[in-house]
């Protein structure tokens, strides 16, 4: 098997889900056989928005021939990763380069995990929601938009409310009685808005 590890491993983080890794080629005489390529082992050490880490799943990408760089796609935003590089010949892999640590920046969050609308009265509705399963960063706020739907399914004016990220419920007051409303709800990080969930609910006709 090859005798030495690739040197001078460098990681350039392109965005929240993509990184580029560079390395110096090993001297050909240390390959001790036919140079097949280089393997990059990489794994997520932790999510920066959650402490828990269940099992470390190592991923491997193989770059054929004498390439000295490669792209690592499909990374998770706002996470800490480690990687190392090994050279490969027909017999197997050489030793690993020292582990290199890199961090991905924040991304936009996934949609809130649920939106539930309860306690209809003449002029109010209560909204409850769950935080996104993948915050992909530090949540800065939630955005709620809503509008009435009249009997001919036309949409009325859209109202937008920004809600602090630590809230999980809201009572909407001063609504019209016996009116159907459509709600659009999403979470935000400093990078931008995540995908929204929609829901409809009706205020009651009379007490």
Automatic annotation (TrEMBL):
It comes from the Eukaryota. Signal peptide: none annotated. GO terms for cellular component: neuron projection. Residues 5-107, 111-207 form the Fibronectin type-III domain. CDD domains: FN3. SMART domains: FN3 (SM00060). InterPro entries: FN3_dom, FN3_sf, Ig-like_fold, Neural/epithelial_adhesion. Keywords: Disulfide bond, Immunoglobulin domain, Repeat. This is NRCAM protein.
């Amino acid at each position: 098997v090859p005798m030495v590890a690739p040197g001078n491993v460098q990681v350039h983080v392109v965005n929240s889900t993509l990184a580029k890794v560079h390395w110096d080629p090993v001297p050909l005489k240390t390959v001790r056989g036919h140079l097949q390529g280089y393997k990059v082992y990489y794994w997520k050490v932790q999510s920066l928005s959650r402490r828990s880490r269940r099992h470390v799943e190592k991923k491997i990408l193989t770059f054929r021939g004498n390439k000295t760089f490669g792209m690592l796609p499909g990374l998770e935003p706002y996470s800490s990763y480690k990687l190392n590089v090994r050279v490969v010949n027909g017999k197997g892999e050489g030793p690993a380069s020292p582990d290199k640590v890199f961090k991905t920046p924040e991304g936009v969050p996934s949609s809130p995990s649920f939106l539930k609308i309860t306690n209809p009265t003449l002029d109010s509705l209560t909204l409850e929601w769950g935080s996104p399963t993948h915050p992909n960063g530090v949540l800065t706020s939630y955005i709620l938009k809503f509008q009435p739907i009249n009997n001919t399914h036309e949409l009325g004016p859209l109202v937008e409310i920004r809600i602090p990220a630590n809230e999980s419920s809201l009572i909407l007051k001063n609504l019209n009685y016996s009116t159907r409303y459509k709600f659009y709800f999403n979470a935000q990080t400093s990078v931008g808005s995540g995908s929204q969930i929609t829901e409809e609910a009706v205020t009651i006709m009379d007490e």
